[in-house]
Amino acid sequence: MKNLVLPVAVLSLGLASFSFYQQPPAPVAETISSSDPNTTDEVPQDHKLVIYQLMTRLFGNKTAVNKHYGTLQENGVGKFNDINTTALQAIKKMGVSHVWFTGVLEHATMTNYTKDGITLDDADVVKGRAGSPYAVKDYYDVDPDLAVNVKNRMQEFEALVKRTHDNDMKVLIDFIPNHVARTYKSDAHPAGVADLGEKDDKTKAFAPNNNFYYLPGKSFVVPAGYNPLGPLTGPKEDKKFQEVPAKATGNDVFSEAPKVDDWFETIKLNYGVDYQNGRAKHFSPTPDTWLKMRDILIFWTRKDVDGFRCDMAEMVPVEFWAWVIPELKKIKPDLIFIGEAYDAKTYKMYIEQGHFDYLYDKVGLYDGLRRLMRGEGTTEDITKVWSEESRGFASHMLRFLENHDEQRIASKDFAGNPRAAIPAMTVSATLATGPIMLYFGQHVGEPAHGAEGFSSEDGRTTIFDYWGVPEHQKWMNGGKFDGGKLSDEQKQLHSFYTRLLTLTSQSDAIRRGKFYELQDANNLDQQYNQRQLYTFVRYTDKQKLLIVANFSPDKTYKPTLRIPPNVLQLMGLSPTQFYTYTDLLNQAPTVQALNLTLAPQSAYIFEIKAK
């Protein structure tokens, strides 16, 4: 956590940069349109959600033992009740509008809750001591780990929803539609609801109204290389998990013997697609799985949840989403659906046809920024995202630098330094009018050190094991959530995220403004390294912003930035007027010129006003 001192904007007060304002008027704004390679004709929509993702099991855990493969009793576990008003207010102060409580649904686990009437899972088909939150065991229940009183676990979740709303934030939870745990059995479903698979014809590999896919005449085989708890022994661990007939595995493996690196702990749900016969579609009459999934979504919507992050949305047919999302919005029109998506070629289809509000921008902006942060890419990756990959629907793309699936920025596997996030997070938050997401611990430089258990030392914070997250615990400070145990460098990093996200949530230009890239306008300046510097404007009739990022880990640049007269006109500004520039992000003094000193790994958001 050393050497984390953040740069402060250093600006020259010289007036030389104003020379370009004396040029004659440019062509009228109407000439700048989709034919201009520096902008798009997308009409911005204000979708600037600020989402804070927290792993519910880990967030409130104050225990710091962190024993390899430790039990709940040894390593501790966070509860719904730990996310109290103090915690929620601390999250709210960062500019957050929505909290994604990850891992709420009951899932397979090696922890024994038989005394509470919950069946014990078989370690041969559970990943990690705590289990994967994405191997759902009961769609109608919540994880007993998260309750102080297991019998009252649903009431404790409902109280968290109300508490979050009382603190003026909305609630998102996971919806895992593609697969369930091999031990799935709902004991909490409403009366009269048939459980998944209960009425399946198991003699058929595929039937439109079966909930699962079967391999008739074959028994499931536990992957030979799977060792559930390493040197320890898990419950029922004997390589003899019984499943007859075997069911297809969650990552579309139609074999009774999935490999150890498959999602072997899960079974694939059948939405009426016959994968083994040319992916033939059987969507009429409406498949039973569609109806069951709709009813599950209705159940949680009536718990006053405000939206769903839909796991592996592209593994479920778009026709299902096209049907179910409008059905849910009849009940709650402002319900939010976020799709985990990785195929850029299908983005537009899942937004327009599938009715998703937002999709992950992982393979585009995240991957491009990751390369930049690691010194492996250029800012051309950013240009490609807005000009090609998400052109026309950027306001529907969720941007982030960390989540539960990705490596921590501060880990040696990613950037090794949380400062690398300063330019990247600024671009992520301000490039368009879509939502931005922050993962718990990111804002204090959590590096995810250590091998927790099933989750090896891979730069990620485990979702499979019981664990205390050390740098996050310093911010939590025993439940005060005041950052009292953070280093000075961590406090500066947290302050950066707070300033950025608060500005993002409040700025008119960022929330609903148009966009124009200034790379071409500045590429002749010898001090403007177009591969490592990125500059653009965001503007509305009420506010004009200039955003500058330096991705270099070690180089300071001193360009004289140029905003061409035609762009000034487009922004509603006069090319002959003098302007002042106030760096809102770094809260620096107002200056009267764009002679800049851009420190390594720095970012600046200047508000432009007439002098």
Automatic annotation (TrEMBL):
UniProt keywords, alphabetically: Signal
Gene Ontology molecular function, alphabetical: alpha-amylase activity
Gene Ontology biological process terms in this record: oligosaccharide catabolic process
InterPro entries named in the record: GH (IPR017853), GH13_cat_dom (IPR006047)
CDD domains: AmyAc_3
SUPFAM superfamilies xref list: (Trans)glycosidases (SSF51445), Glycosyl hydrolase domain (SSF51011)
Glycosyl hydrolase family 13 catalytic domain: residues covered: 53-482
Coiled coil location: none
Claim: Magnesium is one of the keywords in the record: no
Signal sequence, renumbered to the chain: 1-21
Pfam families from the UniProt entry: Alpha-amylase
Keyword Aminoacyl-tRNA synthetase: no
Domain of life, source organism: Bacteria
Protein name: Alpha-amylase
